[in-house]
Amino acid sequence: MIDLHSHTNKSDGTDSPRELVNKAISKGVSLLGLTDHDTTSGWQEAVQSLRGSISLALGSEISCLTTDGISVHMLGLLFDGQNKEMQIMLEETRDGRLPRMRKMIEKMRAAGIDISMQDIEAVLPIGATLGRPHLADALVNKGVIKSRDEAFQGMLNNDSVFYVSHAAPTPEEAIRMIRKAGGVAVIAHPFASLRGQILGAKDFAALVEAGLQGIEVDHRDQNSDERAMLRVIAKELDLVITGASDYHGSGKLNSLGESTTAPDQWEKLESLADQRRVVGV
Question: How far is C-alpha 188 from the geometric centre of its chain's CA atoms?
């Protein structure tokens, strides 16, 4: 079972890297993609936790913005974690998250919602990449909403009046950096319309020109029609088709292994990296 998209408490998941690996083993996952938002800080602990037959495809989910302000997430897998330019890009993206969070809090407080930066810090794991899920957790604790899922379908949606974008690379810039660092670039859940504005079919050609190699097709936030359309796009553009859980622990409903990548598609994707970087025991 191949699940190429998951998160730990180094970004907005609730499991430590060790707990994530243990859960993946118990679920029968043979290859797990560790893709925390804009960071590689969970890699070492995850690798140290390996046992048995499970392997890791280390990576990161990079937060991007198109030139017209659409939020896009790019999965970089199998890149060189020591690449300085990649780490600088990830750091700069993380740095833009704090002022963004403060602006979102200001908007909520102006609307009469009782929330503060201290409330978010109370739910933020040490060393985690700050993100909207932590704001959601704080709102749950305050009784404003019931769950993260409710938050992202409403007040934290990309189209919400409370949404604020942050400094981020364009999808094309992220793709080029992933490729330059030797990795493979897969666009995550591109048709997840419940999250807000999404790309159109015509937008993929420019991403392929920049070096895009795969599309995350099978994902719970994309319905059957959206998945079918993405399969057509992938076939027309000769892109690898992936599927993944986008597991976040107890913060979201997603379960490890609920969507997976076919072995032949993974073999094709892995072959596109500049060297073999899958980590096993």
Answer: 7
Residue 56: predicted pLDDT: 98
d(CA 138, CA 120): 5
Q: Is 171 helix (H, G, I), strand (E, B) or coil?
A: helix
Same domain? For 226 and 107 the reply is: no
Say if residue 187 is in the same domain as residue 61.
yes
Q: How far apart are CA 130 and CA 141, in angstroms?
A: 17
Burial of 257 from C-beta contacts in 10 A (0-12 / 13-18 / 19+) = buried
pLDDT tens profile 146-158 = 998 888 888 998 8
Q: Report pTM.
A: 0.88
Q: Judge whether 61 and 77 are in contact, CB under 8 Å.
A: no
Which residues make Cβ contacts (< 8 Å) with residue 151, sequence separation at least 6?
132, 135, 136, 139, 140, 145
How many domains is the chain built from? Answer: 2
6, 140: one domain = no
The CATH number of whichever domain residue 146 belongs to comes to 1.10.150.650
Domain CATH for 53 = 3.20.20.140
Crossing angle for the helix pair 84-95 and 171-180, to the nearest 10 degrees: 150
Residue spans of alpha helices (H) in 160-246 = 171-180, 204-210, 224-237
